[in-house]
Amino acid sequence: MESHSPILVGLAFATIVVALTAFGRRLPVPAPVLQVIAGLVVATIPGVAMPTLEPDLVFFVFLPPILWAAAFFTSLREFTANRRPIGLLAIGLVIATTVGVAFVARALFPGMPWAVAVALGAIVSPPDAVAAAAVVSRLPVPRRVIVILEGESLVNDASALVLYRSAVAAAVTGVFSLGESIVRFFLDAGVGILLGLAIGWVLVWALKRTKDELAEILLTLAGPYAAWILAEQIHVSAVLACVAGGLYLRQHYSVVVGPRSRVQSKAVWDLLVFVLNAMIFVLLGMQFTAMIKATTLAQLPALLAPGLIISLVCVVVRLVWVPVATWAPRLLSKEIARVEAVPRPKAVALVAWTSMRGIVSLATAFALPLTLADGSPFPYRQDLLYITMSVILFTLVVQGCTLAPIIKYFKFAPETHHQQEERFARIEALRRAADALEDAAREGWANDEDVSWLRAELQDRLDSHRDPERASTRHELRARMRHAERRMLIRLRNEGAISDEVLRELEHELDLDAMRGDSAIAHAH
């Protein structure tokens, strides 16, 4: 039976992911929680070998593409506009949580060295990028809340890992220098960002010279791993290297690749990120089962109780920090109070409550060394593992499962700014297209009938954004026409008049037209 374990795990994983995808959105439980439960179920299948969580595997396989994709789909304008609250969370709150956890850990375990306590604080301090995006982004919350939470999760791993490495080095060697740690942080961050920008520049340069869609997709997939490997080789922040590279590539991507490449690349990246996210949480569930199997029921309360206390510390520190970090700058600076909009208390409360931990915390805990420099065992290593597991479970289940009811209770007013910007951009782009058409018409080489037809099409598209009701009618008519075209193409293929390849090419054109029409009608209202 052991030889079939990988096959069983793969089949069970695929079945569960498909089932969760099909039914997960109908359930009130967030997808990450369902996936953790799925991992618990998979781990109980008889004959299934429990996979070993290798920290290097997590950091190298999972994190680079997830961070890169999150940065790629982040608005640089909004990220920059919210850099102060993001920085206060990603750096300030990480430090505050680390300090709070370290003091409580020392109280719970009086013999625990300070360096080990700080390492624990650094392990559990950063909320997880995957968990935050998976839960909040699908709920009706203010755009600024999503930007701040996603921005925090992009940067906080970098600050937490610097604290973690400094604390572990101090625990192993017995030597710690605060000044050196501060310098190391800024050096790691600065060089990591520069490296990421360099990788992004190289990708843009290569994409400009590549005309093959598959090669372009492969280049975008290689980018995060190149940034991560190079950053690790020179011992700088690989997290910030991926973030900087993803942001840089996004700013130039629209002009260096063609439409087909953009459509295909988005499909590939959506699938990749979805699979990685699902694997992460299923793997978390399996690791929880493995750790529980390694203990007796009588031992569990003593092992999990400190974890519950540390979980409450993490939550309480954030609940205190977020309001203080939100309002204190406004009280201390008249310029900030004058320029920035008054924060909405409900939005502040939502940011304060959203802090699920995930695979990064557990992988970091597993990465703790087994021994010190003198060969003795690393102090309290097993306790740190159980505490980390408890914090992840507590925040995922308690906070993850309460987010939807809280958001529903808050009843955030619908935001129209994004839709207004989009409508403005569509109209301005169409006007510029009309100017280009008129310029071409005056050059004499264009057919008058073609110009007239395109003028009518442009006017039709402009009218669809100004008159939503008329747009709905035209959308329905177009949909029926596309349906008739598709049925005829299928009939011709079935009769042998055309090949499957011709069907695929023409069907792809109809699909793109349908996608454009669906997008336009969705934002016209």
Would you give an account of this structure?
The chain is mostly helical and 525 residues long. Helix content is 80%, strand content 0%. α1 packs antiparallel against α2, α2 packs across α12 and α10 packs antiparallel against α11. It starts with a helix and ends with a helix.
Distance N to C terminus: 58 Å
Q: What's the level 1 CATH class of the largest domain?
A: Mainly Alpha
CATH fold name of the largest domain: Na+/H+ antiporter like fold
Largest sheet: none
Radius of gyration: 26 Å
Strand content: under 5%
- The backbone outline, from C-alpha atoms, is globular
- Helix segment tally: 21
Domain count, please report it.
2
Describe this protein with a few key phrases:
single chain; 525 residues; mainly alpha; Na+/H+ antiporter like fold; 2 domains; 21 helices; globular
Task: Give the secondary structure arrangement, pairings included.
Elements: H1 5-23, H2 31-43, H3 55-72, H4 76-81, H5 83-108, H6 114-124, H7 129-136, H8 143-173, H9 178-208, H10 213-233, H11 238-256, H12 259-293, H13 300-332, H14 334-339, H15 345-353, H16 359-366, H17 381-410, H18 417-442, H19 448-466, H20 468-494, H21 500-524
